[in-house]
Amino acid sequence: MRDLGSIYFVEKVYELSDDYMRKHNLYYKKRVRLKKISGENGLDIEDFAISDSE
Fold it and tell me: Residue 28: CB partners within 8 Å, gap ≥ 6?
């Protein structure tokens, strides 16, 4: 994935536990973690929620 000249690698796709979601008042269970492998822009690691498709 490119973000303003940076390249990211999909490091992990995972699901949160129900307890963790309740504790932190989160809606989406599925998550993806991206790790920057080159470039200067953006964060080194970014986590995103993934919505369920209908």
Answer: 49, 50, 51, 52
Residue 25 phi, psi (nearest 5): 55, 50
- The residue ranges of every structural domain in the chain are 2-50
Q: If residue 14 lies in a helix (H) or strand (E), which one and from where to where?
A: strand 6-15
pLDDT of residue 32: 96
User: What whole-number distance in Å separates Cα of residue 26 and Cα of residue 18?
Assistant: 9
pTM to 2 decimal places: 0.71
- CB-CB contact of 37 with 9 (8 Å): yes
**Where on the phi/psi map is residue 38: left (φ > 0), alpha (ψ -120 to 50), or beta?**
beta
